[in-house]
């Protein structure tokens, strides 16, 4: 099959990314892959879609993710119509283009919807992604699985929430990623609260969440595939991301350390409370961020840290994912 990975821009991809590892494993299983940037789509006529894509065929010369990216970047773009694509895998981060290219993510989702009409299997489902473009998506899930939350642009609202939560909250952009502009505010930092609200709200709404004491131990990134945990030899695809001393952000590229995650029956019960709806929504590949007994975020666009999970657990999760995708494409063609 031919898998198209839709990313922000090829030159911003890295060998350590989950997307690159998935693409490599697909090549190693004999599939063709191509990368499509959000600015590369073409609308033709009668709802036909094409894209200027960089394509790579399976080759014994491609042994690791660095070699794959080197070959990919040196490959000229060619226009490919979507009826030559079996899978379009949406792996872009809308936040990366929010300032410089605010049109990019919206257009990517619209073109993905058109590709669906050409019988291309699009994951995750672009219709559902429109409603999950920010952290408010979590509010569609049972109250017991998520922290107490407020979304606003009003300082007075935040101050009231701050008092209701015993003067200890987390503030971050409603539409954000990578740990940018994430703040913990307690009674010692209340003098900076108004300024923090103003900084976050420059780019839109903010989300205020209750502070969970378990966050001191970091969070767990837990992967779901088509509504089921990704597990190999009894080891779940997951990572315990532990922040540096004095840091509240658990993002690996912000300096957090990846450790083996201890997956308890309580965590699996928590995951089970959201899995069915995620599958119903067409969220094929998802990363849950878990702190204690709460899910802090549901990552549905381009969840990362899968290479770290594979390395720490010494298991190949990507083969399981590509095998599952092969079966899904076969069923899609039959339908």
TrEMBL record:
It comes from the Bacteria. GO terms for cellular component: cytoplasm. SUPFAM superfamilies: Glutathione synthetase ATP-binding domain-like, PreATP-grasp domain. InterPro entries: ATP-grasp, ATP_grasp_subdomain_1, GSHS_ATP-bd, GSHS_N, PreATP-grasp_dom_sf. It is an enzyme of class 6 (ligase). One of its GO terms (molecular function) is ATP binding. Keywords: ATP-binding, Ligase, Nucleotide-binding. This is Glutathione synthetase, ATP-binding domain protein. The keyword Repeat does not apply. Its EC number is 6.3.2.3. Residues 135-326 form the ATP-grasp domain. The keyword Cytoplasm does not apply. The lineage of its organism: Bacteria, Pseudomonadati, Bacteroidota, Sphingobacteriia, Sphingobacteriales. It comes from Sphingobacterium spiritivorum ATCC 33861.
């Amino acid at each position: 099959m031919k898998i198209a990975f839709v990313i922000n821009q090829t030159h911003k991809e890295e060998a350590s990314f989950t997307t690159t590892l998935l693409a490599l494993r697909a090549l190693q299983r004999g599939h063709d892959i191509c990368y499509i940037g959000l600015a590369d789509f073409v609308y033709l006529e009668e709802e036909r879609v094409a894209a200027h894509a960089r394509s790579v065929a399976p080759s014994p010369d491609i042994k690791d993710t660095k070699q794959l990216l080197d070959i990919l970047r040196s490959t000229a773009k060619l226009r490919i119509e979507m009826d030559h694509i079996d899978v379009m895998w949406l792996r872009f981060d809308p936040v990366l283009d929010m300032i410089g290219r605010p049109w990019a993510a919206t257009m990517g989702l619209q073109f993905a919807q058109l590709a669906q009409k050409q019988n291309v299997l699009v994951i995750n489902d672009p219709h559902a992604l429109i409603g999950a473009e920010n952290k408010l998506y979590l509010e569609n899930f049972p109250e017991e699985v998520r922290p107490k939350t407020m979304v606003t642009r009003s300082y007075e609202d935040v101050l009231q929430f701050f008092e209701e939560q015993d003067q200890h909250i987390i503030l971050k952009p409603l539409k954000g990623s990578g740990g940018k502009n994430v703040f913990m505010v307690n009674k010692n930092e209340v003098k900076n609260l108004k300024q923090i609200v103003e900084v976050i709200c420059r780019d839109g709404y903010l989300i205020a969440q209750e502070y969970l004491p378990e966050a001191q131990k970091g969070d767990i990134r837990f992967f779901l595939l088509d509504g089921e945990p990704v597990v190999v030899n009894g080891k779940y695809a997951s990572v315990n991301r532990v922040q540096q001393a004095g840091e509240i952000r658990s993002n690996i590229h912000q300096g957090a350390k990846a450790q083996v995650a201890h997956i308890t029956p309580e965590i699996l019960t928590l995951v089970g409370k959201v899995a069915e709806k995620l599958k119903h929504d067409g969220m094929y590949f998802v990363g849950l961020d878990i702190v204690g007994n709460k899910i802090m975020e549901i990552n549905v666009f381009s969840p990362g840290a899968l290479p770290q999970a594979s390395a720490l657990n010494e298991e190949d999760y990507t083969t399981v994912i590509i095998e599952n995708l092969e079966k899904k494409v076969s069923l899609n063609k039959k339908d």
